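Backbone geometry tokens:
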Amino acid sequence: MEHALVEREEQFMIIEGGKSYTTADIEALPDGERAELIDGEMFVMESPSRTHQKILGELHVQIYMHIKEKKGTCEVFLAPFGVYIADDTLNYVEPDISVICKLDKLDERGCHGAPDWLIEITSPSNKYMDYGRKLMLYQAKGVREYWIVDPKQKFVTVYDFEHEEGPIVHPFFEPVKVRIYEDLYLDLSQFM
């Protein structure tokens, strides 16, 4: 069957005659092309905006410095970083930020299993994924905490799956408490 490209909420999904894609298809993509895989469906990723990258960098620095100052054992990674979230061949994501505390899940290819904390920085082209498909996937696969950062609306939506709390919405002007750490608050006020 012919290869078709279907637009859904401005996010592109590749469908090929009902074919289910695998992580081998992701790994075979040409250099520079990125996609995610959820339940065998492949989603092509767009290049991030300048604002997205600024927020990503700021959050990464704050998290990295906290772990370093506290001599923590968790590791923080920013995209592109492969997360084989179900440790199967049908699911592969590249969250904007991944924090992994069980280091035996890590190898040179990425994380195998659910990270402890994931952050996605949403845009109009990926809201469907961040608030829908990824939210359900992350909760089902054992992510402890999930944040959706919305630069346009200037708020952070926090899901504390470990304690079955959320969504809790925080405006950028207030520090946001990280649930997996006792003493970490992230500051996005410079993006107001």
